[in-house]
Amino acid sequence: MQILQALANGITEGAILALAALGITLVFGISRFANAAHGDYMTTGAYGAYFGTGFLGLSMPMAALLGIVTAAGVGLLFYFLVFKKLSRNSSAVNLIVSIGVAIFIRYSIVLFAGSEQYSYGLPILRAWRFGELRIFPMDLFFIGTSVISIAFVHIILRYTEFGRKMRAVADNSQLARVSGIRVENVEVIMWIMASALAGIAGILIGMKTVVDPLMGWNMLLAAFAAAILGGLGSPGGAILGGLIIGISQEMSVVFISETYKVAIAFIVIAVVLLVRPWGLLGHREAVR
Amino acid sequence: MSAYFVAMFILAGIYALLALGLNLHWGYTGLINFGHVAFFAIGAYTSALTTTSLHWPIACGFLAAIALAGVSAYPLGLVSIRLRTDYLAIVTLGFSEVVRAVLINEIWLTNGTNGISYIPRPLKNLPTGTSEIAYLGLVLILVSGTYLLVHRLTQAPFGRTLKAIRENEEAAQSLGKNVASFKIRSFMIGAAIAGAAGAAYAHYINFVVPDQFLPLVTFYIWMAVIMGGSGSNKGVILGTVLLMVFLEGSRFAKDFIPFISDVKLAAIRFMVVGLSMILFILYRPQGIIGRKDT
Predict the structure, then answer these.
(1) Between chain B's N and C termini, which has fewer beta carbons within 10 Å?
(2) Residue A122: inside a domain, yes or no?
(3) Residue B261 burial by Cβ neighbours in a 10 Å radius (0-12, 13-18, 19+)
(4) Does B222 sit within 8 Å of A107, measured CB to CB?
């Protein structure tokens, strides 16, 4: 029964992780570096929504919208101010600078909002009981939000003009450029999408637990693990990776210990990278 | 006041050791190590445990710290051969978080979050004040010794090969250099230096707890290396000194800016750290006195 409960928790956790990993994978696919500030874009979204409920007195859906817009705005801002200027540099340089961005955002939040925890003050719904298994109605909401957001991204990537351009840039940006695709525009829209996804993920975590300055950073490693496991640059892989990492983390709580949760993400990353560096659904060529 | 400066210079010396190790990884070999604090922690805990629980002499604990930190880098070195640099960054960051999880969890060994206290300090019997200055002397000897060693290493064919790997791995490989072995050795030597820094830290502070080894420490060192100039040993020492002056100096900002809480002041300090990483990479990627050929 405990295992079934952990499975249920893991699916919720995995659905949120998948959203985070999808954003990381989009950035990797187009701008070609692992963005360590992604976790802090998540935090930004959560705080944007808290600003909506706590200060402006907005309803939760409106506040969430504000949070998503804030995250997308911050992501876009740092693209223009930092990453765009470094687009000719190596992925290593971009990754290092993204750490600087991450630290700057995190402590800007601490400066303005303090380091205490906040909650959205949502009504607490009773769990449904199936024998000993307890499922919170909110968990279904988290999974549903994640599925809808991912499906939305999938439709854009697969069935729109923009999606075709984006896949072309991800495949070979120079070829895309000479074919007349404005790579800069594709990057701008990609950053908006990726940061908005981060915002959604951050708000969901805030609803599930609490809002605090370290929430996104603490999830970054697991999100990276999910993205790498699925194959960096592969949206489908991000979802699969998120679920596998989420479930195995919750299982580890049952069988090992809560504090070793972080170790699961690490072991998965290390093993995948050594055995199958292009991930479960990624392309072999994507890795050097 | 002079006691305060002595303390500051001891910490600066310890940070300088960490920076010299990281510079060997990133500045010379081009390996992104986001988990440097793990080797620092392993060194600190090794020396702390061997000198308290096992009652080893401090010198032996110190050597054990260097050895264990170096050896613990071996598996990561193996991993680094097969990974792109940005994947290695994520793996090393994960490694440092796992090391911290072990320090928190394995209470039988590390005493968990309570940490280890009463770690002996060498030259403790000297009168108060003199004992700190003597310790500063030891740290300075350690830093200069390490500086000379790293300087020698990086001038030697070994260092030139590392730079070749950094610039073009395939070219180094095709010239018959065993890239894997060089990378592993660079990783292990840099980690061993961080282990020495850990031991020096543990015996100075006299207690260790897992919270002293957060990933933020790693990024302080990164900032020192980037600011001073990656690939220049003099540069990273300068970077460390500037970092310490900034970190400590900003404590006095409280006297000049009224109505600012400690939390806000600390937040501003971290914001400056993040911002200067961004600005240096954007506008002066070679650092203050780094190599020109970046």
Answers:
(1) N
(2) no
(3) exposed
(4) no
User: Which residue is listed with tokens 């707890």?
Assistant: B209
B244 found inside a domain = no
In this complex, the residue of B82, B90, B263 whose CB is nearest that of residue A34 is B90
Q: How many domains does chain A have?
A: 1
Q: What is the residue whose two structure tokens read 């961080």?
A: B194
Question: What does the block give as tokens for A15?
Answer: 């659905």
CATH number at residue A258: 1.10.3470
**pLDDT tens sequence for chain A (288 residues):** 788 889 999 999 999 999 999 999 999 989 999 999 999 999 999 999 999 998 899 999 999 999 999 999 999 999 999 999 998 888 899 999 999 999 999 999 999 999 899 999 888 888 888 888 888 889 999 999 999 999 999 999 889 998 899 888 888 888 988 888 888 899 999 999 999 999 999 999 999 999 999 999 999 999 999 998 888 878 888 889 999 999 999 988 888 877 788 888 888 888 887 788 777 877 665 443
Q: The domain containing residue B116 runs over which residues?
A: 2-214
ipTM of the complex: 0.91
**C-alpha–C-alpha distance, residues A202 and A216, integer Å:** 7
Q: What is the pTM of this model?
A: 0.93
Please report which residue ranges of B30-178 form alpha helices under DSSP H: 36-52, 58-82, 85-105, 107-110, 130-155, 157-167, 169-174
Length of chain A: 288
> How confident is the model over A158-178, as pLDDT tens digits?
899 988 998 888 888 889 888
User: Among A251, A261, A259, which residue's Cα sits nearest to residue A222?
Assistant: A261
CA gap A19, A13 in Å, rounded: 10
What's the token pair of residue A275?
A: 């055995």
d(CA A242, CA B223): 32
**Record: contact B90-A224, CB cut-off 8 A:** yes
In a domain, B188, yes or no: yes
Residue B91 in domain: yes
Angle at A14 between CA A9 and CA A18, to 5 degrees: 160
- For range B61-85, the mean pLDDT: 90
* CB-neighbour burial class of residue A214 (10 A; exposed 0-12, middle 13-18, buried 19+): middle
Q: Is residue B154 part of a domain?
A: yes
Q: B281 vs chain A: nearest CA distance in angstroms? A: 7
In a domain, A209, yes or no: yes
User: Beta A133-135 vs A128-130: how paired, if at all?
Assistant: antiparallel
Closest C-alpha to B78, from A283, A138, A273: A273
CA distances from B148 to A130, B168, B187 (A): 68, 27, 18
CB contact under 8 A, B277 and A99: yes
Average pLDDT, chain B: 90
d(CA B242, CA B223): 10
How many domains does the structure of chain B reveal? 1
Furthest C-alpha separation in chain B: 63
Question: A202: domain range?
Answer: 2-116+128-286
The answer to whether B91 contacts chain A (CB < 8 Å) is yes
Contact between B268 and A107 using a beta-carbon 8 Å cutoff: yes
